[in-house]
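Thanks for the sequence, V.! I ran 5'-nucleotidase domain-containing protein 1 right away. Repeating your input here for the record:
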Amino acid sequence: AKYYLYDNYFDLPGALLCARVVDSLDQHDGQKKYDFWKDMVAAVQHNYKISAFKEDCGTYFPEVKNHPDKYLQRCPESVKKWLKQLKSAGKILLLITSSHSDYCRLLCEHIIGNNFEEYFDIVITNALKPGFFSHTPNQRPFRTLENDEEQEALLSLDKPGWYSQGNAIQLYELLKKMTGKLDPKVVYFGDSMHSDIFPARHYSNWETVFILEELLGDKVAVPEEGESEPLEKKGKYEVRLKALYCVSKQWGSFFVDRLPGLENAEETLVRTWSCKCISTYSTIAIPSLEAIADLPLDYRFTRFSSNRSATAGYYPSPPRAMLPNEESVTMK
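Predicted structure:
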């Protein structure tokens, strides 16, 4: 069977649209087989093609351009301060997005400010992830931009700046040149397992930080003050009270399935496929950048590892669903 994975919040409306198309076909035609995926692809291409922003094509870009405050949240000052601290500490900051340059500029100017380019050494747009990580320089060369139009392909990446398309291989060579190190360490932040975390780890062997919003509504209470670290070593999420435990009544937890035991046998918690991917391909998982922005730059996180518990890499705390409660359960 063929399937498509909607694995992040930007793509998620597509899943709802598919469901409503199925409901409509069931109601009016009573079909047993469906053949509408080609129409979904055509709709996506019409609304999100690279020229759609400039042409005011479709329904998505015109709406965001005309009402950015309705759809975009401002970047917290703590995160902007954190980015400046990283740069002041000598770190090279990259922004890599599959969005085209014109849309990226609109978002960043509204979210960060008109000076957003000052926060980053390298900006790469239309990166076409996950291919950015898996393709070779010949398959996916970097291109310069002029008035948001892609120009000639570059044989190599020689200096920091704003580029389009490209590949992780040539980017890493530039990072070697900029850092003066033969093996510079890259820490990559992303919110898509398919486009960010898996390919960055699998193809480039980068450290990966998975931004997982599900942690906002599925976390456990933090320890008492006397049982945890000093306040100056805490992120702002660590000192909050326990959040409401939000789990879909229809689908259950994002992290685990609960399997009842036979007769008097104990209940078993089975990690979902998504949960196993998190601990396999992520270095750590956090609910947002804001969750770590107030931490010292030398803060040492507990990372996911085959030698540690499956909950080790979640910051500031593991999902509540993954922790045994007062009932008798076994984690698998």
